[in-house]
Amino acid sequence: MTADLVYLVGGASLLLAVVLPELLSRWAVSAPMVLLAVGMLIGLTPLPDGMPLDPQENRATIEHVTELAVLVALMGVGLAIDRPLELRHRRSWGRWRATWLLLGVSMPLTIAAVALLGWWAGLAPAAAVLLGAALSPTDPVLASDVQVAGPQTGDLEVDEDDEVRFTLTSEAGLNDGLAFPFVYAAILMATEGAVSGWALEWVGWYLVGKVLIGVAAGVAVGRLLAYAAFRSASASLRVAERGESLLALAALVSAYGVAEVVGGYGFLAVFACAMTFRSAERSHDYHAAMHQVAERLERLLTLFVLLVLGIALTRGLLESLDWRGAGIAVALVVVVRPLAGNAGLLLAGDRADIDRGERWAIAFFGVRGIGSIYYLAYAAGHADELGADWLWSTVSFTIVLSVFLHGALATPVMRRIGASRPGDPTPEPARTTDH
């Protein structure tokens, strides 16, 4: 019966992935909103039990499915960004200034604020830090409505001119990997005891070493694959000429595998690989073909996960939710993230070319999603106390709140921001087609 239910949910996800984008393209309703609602309705029906919904009993399955969804999204995000990042050019780094401030200022502020709220709610220090780390990154899977549309090809000079969409996209591509050091901090607190015993190891290895290794692995794999695809002496290896877009999947699996084997963060490696690959022959149509493959697989995985999450919500996942967990979720979405994001972006000043309205939009649209589920499942596999039902309920409720609130506001807010810039073309509608 379990297998039959999985096939049923998978078939429904595939069907919805085909029809929802066109159905929702004219309304301020996102596919994630619909999928969660449908899943919740299914959960209320008398269907027999059997699906792997209990996070305690099916932690490993949840971890790997959500991990794959995030990886595919990171590859798609890396290929979609048009603005180049040249590691040896200071001016190129400066054009990413808003992104660096969101990562270096806003993200730590968010982790600290949520951890303090968790501690106030009665969590042990390790669980409080995990809650902050899991809910700190914005999600590349569910944030498509406020992200760039995809790689622009065919021009000699390819760049990204929408600061709001670019900043939110680049932040989502990087902060998933950068949340890992803080997840490890929670794991070490739960398993190793006093901070003084592992603080130096955490800074040197988990905060710095694994980040650098992950980025280096991704850059190396990206350069190797780009050389083979575009410039190899062997025609059989120049897959760009044939338009073999499945290289996108080979690239993300290779980058992730190499990074994990050598001890780096695989999420960062996948994003770095995609960015590096995109830097080769930037205007080539092959990038759009690769992005399309990643985008479609991401859509399918996302809808499947959200449908199952919706079913779980009305079949016991929220049983441990109390006013403290709901309060933390509301505080994060409407207070902590907007204030922390705005605090970071204020430091960018005029150099980021972001006006006041755009700054608040970037600060507000910190979508929480599938990445948070992955981090919670990952940490629970290393320490049982980090997989408490209360944590699962609180994280799940935060995702639901974010999906519905951000999903409902994405289209009108992005249109208003686009219209507020004099001389700008009519803004594109929110990308409900990406789900």
Provide the fold topology.
Elements: H1 2-24, H2 31-43, H3 59-80, H4 90-94, H5 97-120, H6 125-135, H7 163-178, H8 180-192, H9 199-231, H10 239-242, H11 247-262, H12 266-279, H13 286-317, H14 323-346, H15 356-364, H16 370-380, H17 389-420
Helix pairs in contact: 1-13, 2-13, 3-7, 3-11, 3-12, 3-13, 3-16, 5-6, 5-7, 5-14, 6-8, 6-16, 7-12, 7-15, 9-11, 9-12, 11-12, 14-15, 14-17, 15-17, 16-17
Membrane topology: Multi-pass membrane protein
Organism: Nocardioides agri
Pfam family, one: Na_H_Exchanger
Account of the protein in words:
With 435 residues, the protein is mainly α. It has a single domain (2-434), classed as Na+/H+ antiporter like fold. Helices cover 69% and strands 0% of the residues. It contains 17 helices and no strands. It has helices spanning 2-24, 31-43, 59-80, 90-94, 97-120, 125-135, 163-178, 180-192, 199-231, 239-242, 247-262, 266-279, 286-317, 323-346, 356-364, 370-380, 389-420. The longest helix has 33 residues, at 199-231. The protein is globular. The two termini are 28 Å apart. Mean pLDDT is 85; it is low at 425-435.
Mean pLDDT: 85
Number of strands: 0
Task: Provide the succession of SSEs.
Answer: HHHHHHHHHHHHHHHHH
Helical content (DSSP H or I, runs of 4+): 55-70%
| Helix/sheet category | mainly alpha
CATH architecture: Up-down Bundle
Shape: globular
Low-confidence stretches: 425-435
The CATH topology corresponds to Na+/H+ antiporter like fold
Largest sheet: none
Helical run tally: 17
Number of domains: 1
Please state roughly what percent of the residues sit in beta strands, choosing from under 5%, 5-15%, 15-25%, 25-35%, 35-45% or over 45%: under 5%
User: What is the distance, rounded to the nearest whole angstrom, between the alpha carbons of the first and last residues?
Assistant: 28 Å
Radius of gyration: 21 Å
The CATH class turns out to be: Mainly Alpha
Main location: membrane
GO molecular function: antiporter activity
Pfam family, one: Na_H_Exchanger
Organism: Nocardioides agri
